[in-house]
Every structure is written in structure tokens, then in C-alpha cells.
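Hey team,

Filing this mostly as a record. A colleague (T.K.) asked me to run one chain through the structure pipeline before their review meeting, and I want the input and output archived in the tracker in case anyone asks later how it was produced. No errors, nothing strange. Just documentation.

Input sequence:
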Amino acid sequence: MISVLYVDDEPDLLDITKLFLERTGEFTVYTALSVNEGFQILNSHPIDAIISDYQMPEKDGIEFLKSFRSLQDKRPFILFTGRGREEIVIEAINSGADFYLQKGGDVKAQFAELALKVRQGVSRYQAEELLRRNHEELQATNQELAASEEELKANFEELSTSREALWESEHRLSDIINFLPDATFAIDAQGTILIWNKAIEEMTGFKSHDMIGKTNYEYAIPFYGERIPILIDYILSGLPHVEHRYFHIQSDGLRISAETNYPKHQGVPMTAWCIASPLFNEKSEIIGAIESIRDITVQKENEEKLKKSEELYRSVIENIQDGYYRSDAEGNLILASPSFIRLFGYDSLDEVIHQSIADTFYHEPSHRKIFLKKMENIGYLENEEIMVRKKDGTPFLVGVSSHFYYDQNGKIAGVEGIFRNISTQKQAEKELKEKEEHLEAIIQNSPFGIFTYQLLDDNRLVLTGHNKAADIILGIKSDSYLGKTIEDAFPHLLKSDLPNIYKKVAQTGEVITKTEMEYSPDGKLHRIFEVIVFQISKNRIAAFFHDITGTYTHDTH
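Output structure:
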């Protein structure tokens, strides 16, 4: 079941969309009339995908998308709107939207397309998460497989160099083979079993004292359940029909290796890698053969997993929204996603493959050295801001997250990472900063007393700012109260409901006006304040107040 959050300021459309999606049996739909309500649902329910209208009061769909992506949340986000202007589409995609779907047209087809986009977005997100989790496991498996192969090769090199020891003493050779880690047995030229080591005892369950001295293909019974020629017989007789049971056959003229499937490995099928080699006497005459068998069932399963993972990885690269790239140790581009090519205004990968990343994409090529130097210190960089340029020379700002990748020897093989166009984001941040500075100027020059507070996760309301008028009106120095809770800063408010009102505004965004009385120690009315409190951003409020004692007293009279 896919959980979907749909945010739209049209209740009827929310109900229709919820009804359509949920009747398929695939979706559970949570609805919200505003962005703030949508975030409350995201915080309290396990949501798989987000659908949002564009034009809404307070915050539009693009602002919702930017706020959501700023949390480093990569869950699929679909903009579902009646506004179809090109600049809105471009801004949505640049801000991290997975899909853009325009309202209107055939209703049934429209909702079917919406359901398809949700499925695609969730599938792609789950695939990316699976790829990320499996990446380290697969790397470790590859290293283990490589080490195992090298170990096996080393064992056979040791076995080959032991031929002189065979000439001198069969008993000594038997002792050596008996303690090899791989299942190993040997036969003479007539097919009589000479050696059946401990590893092959453990693999087959057949003890050496029951096998040594046996002939007539006895060694095939533990694996195939019948007396038939196997790989070791190919060394002695070159039986052509043996090849029908083996694949990936390789030979250097003496030794032969292959893979096979054993149907009777203690009742369980097994995939094995086998290698057979002739045994010589001092006259270089073949007097027998030896074969080692390694169970590679798990290895083959891992190879299949790796293959599927690589296919999934390729699919992710081809469909990723941000620009993925990989360079070699010399800094030349060797791999890039289609989105990377589009980001820089090129038509195809062929235009830039094997080109210097610094010279082709950096606005100032020398800055790549600075980028690499920073990455050397910690091994990776996240959201590093870099000025790059498009194919036509147009500069633009990107956020780069990159890390080194290594070869099997542990040496740096190159750099890979993500380029994300953040020009729009930076412009939005600049505008937000200007608005905040403008708001701060208004606060500081207002004749009203003003306090600002922030509601923390533990429900404490902390004083974060004030203006000069607040200190003048109350006759205090508020700097000493900054960072304190409202109860610690103004203990006399414990007797009023103002702290709870302030917290309510911080949570709901309501605007509340209240008249607050101040009494002197002898219980007489001292002053009367009008207090106006409103939300300035999520969990942040401003409280305006001014002394209305004279006005209030006059009106009362």
C-alpha cells in the first residue's frame, strides 16, 4: 500500500482525488488544505509520495517543494496544478520536483496518469534507497570474491610446484593435499582413487577410508548419484561428452578449469568451480590426475545480485534528476547521466566524454584544484557551491556533492558525484534574507514594544529578540533575557495565560489580540497593555505591545 499526501486549497478536488486513488486499492491518501497542515501530516504519518497544487494561499507549491527538499528528503514530489506556464514547469523541475502534471482534460485519464506518476516516483525512490543500501554490501562481496579467487589460484600454484614432492613421496603429497582448504581428490592413470582429503569428506559426507582404492568412476557418485566420467577424466582420456556437463571451460594445455552444477550434493543442488591437473613422474609421464572442487553457489547468487544491482544502478543513472558524473584519476569525464548533459546544455555525452572536467565545465578551471584539495581533507564534499558554465558559456551556480572512489588496490581511481543547479535557490535565499533584514529594520524602529520568540521541540518558548521600544516601555534591559524561556525572563506572566497563547500562535499561525493588565505589588492596577501576537515563520512569533492605560481609563470613565 502506497501512502500519499495531497495538498490543495480546493476541498472538492482533494475529496475527488482521494476517492479515485483509494478505490484502486493501491493507495492511502492523506489530504491537507495548506502547506503547514501538510508538514504536520508528514511529521506524523509514514508518507511515500507527495502531490501538491501550485497556487495556494500563504505558501504555493514551489515554496512547499523547496522547503521539503531543504530537509534533504528525496521522497517523490509531484506538482499537480492548473497553471501550465513554462517558467513554473522549469522552476518546479529545478527545485527538485519528480513530475509535473497539469490539471484539466479527461478526468479519468488525468487521474490514471497521476496514479502512474506516483507509482513511478515511489518505485524509483525505493530503487535508489535499495541501491544505496546494497552498494557497500556489494563492494564488500566483490572484494571477498576477488580475495577468494586469488587464494584459490595460489593454492593451485602451490599444488603445481608440489610435483617434485609427489615423485619423492606419495605419503608426503597426501598429507599436503589432506589439509588443503578446497575439496580435493586424486586418481592414478587407471582411475583408482589415491587421495580423498578432509575438505571433500566434509563436502560430500563420504569418508576417505570408504573411497580410497575404489575404481569405476566411484568418485562421481557423491556428486551425480551415478558412475560417469567427470572433469578429472578429461585430463586422462579427453572424453568429449564430459564437456556437456561443464561450462566456462578454460585450459592452458595442462590444467583445465570449468564450472558445473552438481544435482546430488548431499541432496541439495550445488554450483561448483573445478580445476583438474595431470600428475607426472620423474620422466614427465602422466601417472594420474588431481581435481579440486570449490562450492561457488553463494558466489553465483551474489554475482546474480550484482548483475541486477548494476542494471538497477544503470536505470537510476539514466533517470536521476540531478546531474551524476564520474571522472578518472586524471580528471577526465568517463561517465555522466543524461540529466548532467542537459544541465550543461549539451546534446549528447559524445560531446564531452573523456574531456577535462575542469576545462569543460568549470567557469574558472583552476577552482577544481581547490575543490579536490578540500575533498582530500575529509574524503568527500557535500553541497559545495561552485560556479560552472554551460556549453554556450553561460555561468551558473551548482551545489556539488562528491567523493573519491577507489580501485581494488585501494588507490584513488577518480571522483564521482552529483551536480545540482542552485541558481534559483540562491536567488530565493537572497530575497528571503532581504525580507528578513527589512523586517528587522521595521521591528527596531517601531514605536511599539516588540519581543520575538521561538518554540523549541520540547515545547519551551525562548526569547530570541527585542527592540529598543520594548526596553523603554518596560524599563528593562532585555539583552540579559535572550535565550531564556518566557517563564524565566518574565516570571510575573506565570499568572497569566500569555505563555500558552504565544505557544498556540507559534503552532497554529493564528493572529491573537489581547489586553493584559499589570498590577503593582500592593495589588493596584498599574498599567494596561494591548498585545498583538502573530507567527513570523514556522515556530517563530512576534509579540507587539503598547501601553493603553490612558486610553483604556478614559474609555472606562
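Quick notes for T.K.: The longest strand covers residues 268-280. The two ends are 67 Å apart (CA to CA).
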